[in-house]
Amino acid sequence: MRKILFFLLFSCLTLGASAEKINGTRLAKGNDIAGVITDSRTGKGIPGVAVSDGYTYTVTDRHGVYQMKADPRCRTVFYSTPSGYEIALDEKSHMPSFYAPHTPGAAFERHDFVLTPLDRDETDFTVFMLADPQCQLKSDVERFRTETMPDLQAHINGGIASGEFKNIYALTLGDIIYDDQNDWVPMKEIMSNVRINDQDGYLPIFQVIGNHDHYNAYTGDYDCTSNFVRHFGPTDYSFDRGKVHFVVMDNVYYLDQGTVPEKGFTKVKYTGGFTPEQVEWLREDLSLVSGKEDKMVILCVHIPMRGASGKEGESGYNFQEVLSELTPFKEAHVMIGHTHYPEMYFHDKHLTAGGTPVMEHIHGAICGAWWHSNTCVDGTPLGYAYYQVRGTQLYDWQAKFTHQPKSHQMRVYDGNASYTGTKGVVYQWEEDLKDCFIATVWYDDDRNWKVELEMGGKVYPMKRVTRRQRDWYAYSFFINENGRGEKNAAYHHTSKHFWTVSIPGVKPSDATGWVIRATQVIPGSGVVHTYTADRIESGYKDL
Fold first, then answer.
1. Sign of the Cα pseudo-torsion (206, 211, 215, 221, in order)
2. CA–CA dist 425, 419 (Å, integer)
3. C-alpha Rg value of the chain to the nearest Å
4. What's the DSSP call for residue 89?
5. CATH topology of domain 15-115
6. How far, in Å, CA of 498 to CA of 387, rounded?
7. Degrees, nearest 5: CA angle 24-28-33
8. Given this model, what pLDDT does residue 489 score?
9. Alpha carbon of 154 to those of 157, 160, 385, 403: distances in Å?
10. What residue spans define the domains of the chain?
11. N or C end: fewer C-beta atoms under 10 angstroms in the chain?
12. For the chain, what percentages of helix, strand and coil (3-state, to nearest 5) are there?
């Protein structure tokens, strides 16, 4: 059973009140932060636990004692939860509670923690990725409360009942809110109440910071992240589950505060990147992981890392350096939000110890196109994804779209179709797609999927497009039916999710007795998923 722990036993002791020894360990002169990490069952200290102030690391000694001279900017002290121990949850918020607030520049503070050993094997586990809830309006928060969370809860319940899910965890992937700082409290409350059954209690949901989680009233990244830190703890941290080392980092590289004169408000100016200090922190974090060649690493950040490494202040700053740090592991994955459309990217120049490229999973948004509909910016339905881990392998994964069954993974269009919105504007597919069956397979990639059409006893292979296309079916709805207008066309994004085939003499909308099969083979494990569709989409019922 998961236990809600009072993890902080002592804090904010003055220098005069600090002991010369903690649990038998003498404190070194000059260290201004210390504590002991103990086993809840034995009461003994736990050696070898990594502890950080957000800038550097130490490890607990044989008595379970850690000590260090904290960076003057330290706002939290936290430990990296080892495999074999429960994720401690806060008694009130039910959020992961692996840290303690620290007063920057304090003369001396002591922070103690208690860990509870796991009573089950967690070599296999399930982790959900929830990208971009991005709630701003009260109506957005309510949709998150009444649509997303019940869908997630029902999906978890079904997976537990069927035996598909075990040892369940979750992470957001940034942009929990949409700039409005009043939304922190309700969003935290909503996320704190997902159950993983009556025995194990609440779903641990770890948080990743996004650009809209930075407070735009402040200048400087340190101040802009203060509200996130107050609610969820450090922006850069790690934890272990089974043979997997998770690392969470803030890769919103803050540039400056700017204004949007025509809208009359300030916004954070940023790009994607890591500071040199963060890179050093990551190196130290990963240096404490033993046996990397037989472990997996999962890096969770907000902004896609597929961009080339740039100079400081440019997109991709230090991305290549960070990706290189992941390669000593047997398998490595990067989990991403931000774009509001899904995409798979293989970093072929960064091969792991297991010989596979670092895989980057870019997720569609929980909020879709900012809660204006049920679709993301490329036509993908709003929703989330989940991953099954077995040992050192990401054994299986699937997207799950809110309001939809797991089998709903694509739509089929007629390349001859035209779409007219309420404003009378007509949209049509590109000329080279005329007479084609067009299947948009949302979480596809060009390596591990095969799509084919069967009709009249014959099978016709479909080809994936080589250049980005616009989903005109979704675009016409988003621009016209949903009232955003032509000037907001930039909110709709192109993609390469399209698979096409033309059959001589056959008009797709007139054809009968056909079916399209999209088959995914999970790399490494060989798990196969096959999804089917047998009708042309012509209305807007699921958008």
1. positive
2. 8
3. 25
4. B
5. Immunoglobulin-like (2.60.40)
6. 24
7. 90
8. 58
9. 5, 10, 14, 11
10. 15-115, 124-401, 410-533
11. N
12. 20, 35, 50
- The values of phi and psi at residue 488, to 5°, are -100, 25
Is the pLDDT confidence value at 391 over 80?
Answer: yes
| Distance (Å, whole) CA 180 – CA 267 | 11
Distance CA 299, CA 207 (A): 13
411 token code pair? 């739509």
Helices 276-287 and 319-326, packing angle to 10 deg: 0
HSE-CB for 475 with a 13 A CA cutoff: 21
Q: Does domain 124-401 have CATH number 3.60.21.10?
A: yes
Three-state SS annotation for 427-488: EECCHHHCCEEEEEECCCCCCCEEEEEEECCEEEECEECCCCECCHHHHHHHHHHCCCCHHH
DSSP secondary structure code for residue 150 in this structure = H
Does pLDDT of 410 surpass 50? yes
For the beta carbon of residue 481, count every other beta carbon within 10 angstroms. 16
Residue 525 in tokens: 């494990």
pTM comes to 0.94
Q: What is the pLDDT of residues 474-490, one digit of tens each?
A: 888 877 655 554 445 55
Calpha distance 103→262 (Å, rounded): 40
